[in-house]
């Protein structure tokens, strides 16, 4: 039985499996530039974050209706449940859909149809986190937050994702201030491909409560000491790091050193359809390759609930 866990770093668009992509393409009359699912899987050889993002945004063309987003979320929740996930904080990228003429409301209402029945159907509680694309402008992020205002009762917080280098957190100071004023929780990707300074900026300027990835903190002993002291959660994604060549091999992953340094680490799946595994596949991979002890695995699972946005009583029920 997989350990009960919370998944805190999961892009719903990154759960689009090739089979579902072709099914939705057929349903919506969208032509994909791949002959079949095998040909599509062949394209999953990434050099870096950008080469992955190109395919990730291309495949989103098949997501058009509320039903598409509902089907996508249901497929993820069923897989997550089978991997011991009891609670999922799910990212979505509204700008990537708005750019294709799909309204925020279609995305949120479609996802909500699946999330509303998730506890009953899959035993998984959920939260939604709206992410801004950091390679788009600050004005676009502000307009997106504005467009999402009618749906904020369904959204627990905001995040920041997409191409990191050259797009420092400070670019999004204003939209994060607005989000905080609206009562939204704040997280951001930082230190995946970008430097440790981006992690510090995300904390100091954007006021984030968690850092997504954060791997490159290990280059700054001062930053590691601060993250450990303040118990800032890091949502690590080991299989993603291997596929995007952030680490050379899984055996080189700094997770053991990060745990030894007293960092509040969690293990997550990022874009599981693209990176070769869901939540427990990531747990299994680090257990086997990094020789983590059973106690360390239990610590990672405990951390995932502690780092979640669940209230204490909800957390006890989910564990
Ligand atoms: C992402 Cl792995 C990763 N990093 C940054 N942005 C993303 N969006 C989807 N997956
Ligand atoms: Zn991510």
UniProtKB/TrEMBL annotation:
Domain Adenosine deaminase: 4-317
GO MF annotations, alphabetized: adenine deaminase activity; zinc ion binding
Positions of the record's site feature: Important for catalytic activity: 213
Enzymatic reactions: adenine + H2O + H(+) = hypoxanthine + NH4(+)
Matches recorded under InterPro entries: A_deaminase_dom, ADE, Ado/ade_deaminase, Metal_Hydrolase
Binding residues for substrate: 271
A Gene Ontology BP annotation from the UniProt entry: nucleotide metabolic process
GO cellular component assignments: cytosol
Keywords for this protein: Hydrolase, Metal-binding, Nucleotide metabolism, Zinc
Active-site residues annotated for this sequence: 192 (proton donor)
Cofactor: Zn(2+)
Binding site for Zn(2+): 9, 11, 189, 270
Domain of life: Bacteria
E.C. no: 3.5.4.2
Cofactor annotation remark: Binds 1 zinc ion per subunit.
Family: Belongs to the metallo-dependent hydrolases superfamily. Adenosine and AMP deaminases family. Adenine deaminase type 2 subfamily.
Cited HAMAP family: Adenine_deaminase
General function of this protein: Catalyzes the hydrolytic deamination of adenine to hypoxanthine. Plays an important role in the purine salvage pathway and in nitrogen catabolism.
Protein name: Adenine deaminase
Organism: Streptomyces davaonensis (strain DSM 101723 / JCM 4913 / KCC S-0913 / 768)
């Amino acid at each position: 039985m997989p350990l009960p866990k919370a998944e805190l770093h999961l892009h719903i668009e990154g759960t689009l499996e090739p089979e579902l992509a072709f099914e939705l393409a057929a349903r919506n009359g969208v032509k994909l530039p791949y002959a079949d699912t095998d040909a599509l899987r062949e394209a999953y050889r990434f050099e870096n974050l950008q080469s992955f993002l190109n395919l990730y945004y291309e495949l989103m063309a098949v997501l058009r209706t509320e039903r598409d987003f509902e089907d996508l979320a249901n497929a993820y929740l069923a897989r997550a449940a089978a991997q011991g996930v009891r609670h999922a904080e799910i990212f979505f990228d509204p700008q990537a859909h708005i750019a294709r003429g799909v309204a925020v409301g279609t995305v949120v209402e479609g996802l909500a149809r699946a999330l509303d029945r998730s506890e009953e159907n899959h035993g998984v509680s959920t939260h939604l986190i709206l992410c801004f694309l950091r390679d788009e402008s600050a004005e676009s992020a502000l307009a997106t937050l504005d467009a999402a205002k009618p749906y904020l009762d369904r959204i627990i917080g905001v995040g920041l994702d997409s191409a990191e280098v050259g797009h420092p957190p400070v670019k999004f100071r204003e939209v994060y201030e607005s989000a905080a004023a609206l009562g939204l929780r704040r997280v951001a990707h930082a230190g995946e491909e970008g430097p440790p300074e981006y992690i510090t900026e995300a904390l100091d300027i954007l006021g984030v409560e968690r850092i997504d990835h954060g791997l490159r903190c290990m280059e700054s002993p001062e930053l590691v000491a601060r993250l450990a002291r303040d118990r800032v959660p890091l949502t690590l994604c080991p299989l993603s790091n291997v596929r995007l060549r952030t680490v050379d091999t899984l055996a080189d992953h700094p997770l053991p050193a990060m745990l030894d340094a007293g960092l509040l680490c969690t293990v997550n799946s990022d874009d599981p359809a693209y990176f070769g595994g869901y939540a427990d596949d990531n747990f299994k991979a680090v257990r086997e390759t990094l020789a983590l002890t059973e106690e360390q695995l239990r610590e990672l699972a405990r951390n995932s609930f502690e780092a979640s946005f669940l209230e204490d009583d909800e957390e006890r029920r989910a564990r």
